[in-house]
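Bumping with the actual sequence this time:
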Amino acid sequence: MAQEKKDIYLLTANLGFRLFDDFKKAFPERFIDVGVAEGNMIGIASGMAMSGKNVYCYSMVPFLIMRSYEQIRVDVAYHNLNVKLIGVGSGFTYGLEGFTHFGIEDMALMRAMPNMNVVVPAGAEDSEHLVKISYDFPGPLYIRLGRVNPLFKYPGKYSFKIGQGIVVQEGRDIALFAIGDMVYEAQQTIELLKNKGISAALINMHTLKPLDVSLIKKYARFCSNIFTLEEHSVIGGLGSAVAEVLTEVGYKGRFQRIGIPEKMLDIHGTSLYLREKYGLVAERISQKILKSITESRLC
């Protein structure tokens, strides 16, 4: 895109070693490494956006969002600027680095930000579509990246649009709304549930804000059990957003958020190890869903 679009600028905060070598070589005047100064990066990006530039800022989730939250709020969001924030390492991606590198509160923070749009691709296909869309997208855009699991594939043709969830698979018994890397885990989960005779719909809710409210309402009309799945705190993320919609429409079924609990374990390790410990792998997720369905039938 930068070959064709001369207004694209890339900013990073002492990250992206080797990752941006090609970009730096091709467009040295349009690449800025501000050093360990995320707040300054947002201020610079805002000034450039006000000067008509199309700016992308890249850093790890906790440093991009939490460390520079005030600057994002005052400089980018308040002025509704054309700045794209790319946060890498969501959830437990950098689990070996410990709690300082966990990206587990960012969706709650950015969802509450005025004028902010929040999109979380489920895999490489989503990411490629999102990159193309992002250039012409007006206003602030937060793109949350985990491992961008290349294993996730859509079973057929699909259309990716910001603000519109994607029905990956239809089902009649339950609806499972997932976001980001968890869409792949959800895909494996519904296969396990199928073996138990449960037909599950899977929805890739890649856009947290603006939320696809109509799609949630659609499944609320006929699914007696609805679940959300996210590698994020159960407070303030996808689960909270869906719960708000279901409450407002008077949903009578059973709803459960599956994510990271507020009370965290005093552990660190690989992302897979932490996902297993927190029950964010297909086998554990299916067990939670089956338990919830059984309890709902007993009520």
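The tokens above came from a reply further down the thread. DSSP finds eleven helices and twelve strands in the chain.
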